[in-house]
Amino acid sequence: MKLDISPKECIVSYGTDNRFDMGRKTIDDGFFDEVLRQGTYFYKVENPYYETYTGTYVLNSSSSEQKINLHPAYGMLRIESEPSGADIYLDGAAQPIGRTPYTTNRLLKGMHRIQLYKEDYYGYSTEYEVFPDGAETIVPTIQLKPQFGWVTCQCEDTEALLTVTDAAGNVMGKGKTGLQLKLNSKGNYKLESSKLSHASQSVEIQGGTNIEGKNSMVMVGVPLPLYGLLEISTEPTRADVFIDGKKMGTSTFLGKILVGEHSVELQKEGYQPMKLSVNIGKDECVVLNQTLKVGPLTKRITLTTLNGYLKLDGEVLTYSQSWTGELEIGRKFKVTSHAREANYKEGELEITITENGLSCFNVPAPSFMGGELTIQSKGYYVVAIQTNDGNSVKSVSIPRSNIQMPIGRYVATIRGNDQRKECKRSFSIKQGKKTVITMNPTEKQSKNREPEPILVRIPTFLDLGTMNGSFSYGLGTGLGVGGYNNLFNMDLLLSLLVVDSTVGFKLTAYPSFNIFKTQNYYNKTVHLNIGPYYEYNGLSSFFGIRLGFGWHFSDFSVGFSYGTKDIFAFDFRMRVNMHLFRV
């Protein structure tokens, strides 16, 4: 008996009657093969996710393989929610099968319970039927109901710290006025404002419909200041009283002070300053009776520098460029200024504090330990500067002047390319001196250098000049052979010419010779050429000489010509060449 079954995984039971008493066989490749005697047999094919199939098989010499396709008994569900990310529980399972959006595995036909849970949203439960078609069914998007609201916390004291806690005392958020929190509506909360040396204020935030699905605002009262009294008397009297660095008056002193720790300083000329710490309690009066000790006189001094930071007798005084403070009268001090970069020498100043002397001192700024470098060049290059032992210092574009360099010996290098040799210069930098070097890479020489190609080009030009004393101007174009790298050039030019409002034409034949040429860093040819030329303007013929100067594709030239009937002309020509091809 031969059966070809789809799906491949199934259980086949078979026998001579509906009891299928001959055997039960599990297959995973879709093929059932069994050797039996001729006769009629009954069989049953089972798969958990497909409908059970029963049939008969007549086995004789002409029997053939039967093909069986089981009908699906399952489907799949596509579950989506708004918002997404909800945990999906199926048929009361203890663990979620996934999060929305999600497509389930195969589910047996029939009704299935779907439950969705997401933090700060109400749970959702529904039943949905799965059809036995083996296909995916999309469940309509489930709208989750929010169980939260946005609460904005406000306080008129913008410096107060705002804290929100839940009923168990857990902190939900901290910040200043304008603090915005997402709170679950199933709980109640407390908003508290607090500030150092102040009594905290609080307000309840009720949950439920007060905040659910809303943007609400809650105002809390400002923290209330708590005060105590501080009384200070000194011997001698009339000492300056500073509390937390702020002058509050002179002794004897009595004042209302915020509760908490405070620093107190007593100062009087001719006596040693006294520093104290005092703790003020609410509605408490703290009394200080102090006797000042005679000590060295001090004077308020200001020290400034133009750059860096200051040290006093080797100890850092300030990391800024200015300091003001008390220094002892009669003592000598050494003040130095220091740069934050290397290669600078500290500035020094010795000062003696006198009672009637200076109270402001300017400390020399740190001085750079080096000199200035200037690199001259006829072209524009990039040069690498290294120390003698090969350590890289910097790269600069040249020509360049007034480059700040530390003292030492260096090597400057212009890297070579296809047209230029590598150029090196050694130089030294001395303190406060200017060093000037010149770097002009020379063109490489080659014995097998190929000849320069001949250019075919279209010149376009503008003529301005005079003809027999009359002003003339014109526009023209033409055809030229020979480039600026070639010794000989030939141009044939045609232009419209205007003389005394009369419009005509001019035909020019202009052979020229390049008597000088060079190339700059960008390989642009600079040339000087000269040559005779012939012109015909429809009435007269002219012979003359022209001198031109050009840079790359542009050309500037002047010409003087003399023609028939004692006619002469002088003009200035500006020309631009468009290269067509090389030969």
Describe the structure.
By secondary structure, the chain is mainly β. The chain is 0% helix and 62% strand. The protein has 7 domains: 2-69, Immunoglobulin-like, CATH 2.60.40.10; 74-143, Immunoglobulin-like, CATH 2.60.40; 148-225, Sandwich (Immunoglobulin-like), CATH 2.60.40; 227-291, Immunoglobulin-like, CATH 2.60.40.10; 298-368, Sandwich (Immunoglobulin-like), CATH 2.60.40; 370-438, Carboxypeptidase-like, regulatory domain (Immunoglobulin-like, Sandwich); 455-582, Beta Barrel (Porin), CATH 2.40.160. It has an 8-stranded antiparallel beta barrel. It has a 4-stranded antiparallel β-sheet with strand order 3-2-5-6, with no helix packed on it. Strands 8, 12, 13 and 16 form a 4-stranded mixed β-sheet that branches. The two termini are 88 Å apart. The relative contact order is 0.05.
Give the tags:
583 residues, Immunoglobulin-like, 62% strand, mainly beta, 57 strands, flat, four-stranded antiparallel sheet, eight-stranded antiparallel barrel, single chain
Summarize the structure.
With 583 residues, the protein is mainly beta. 0% of the residues lie in helices and 62% in strands.
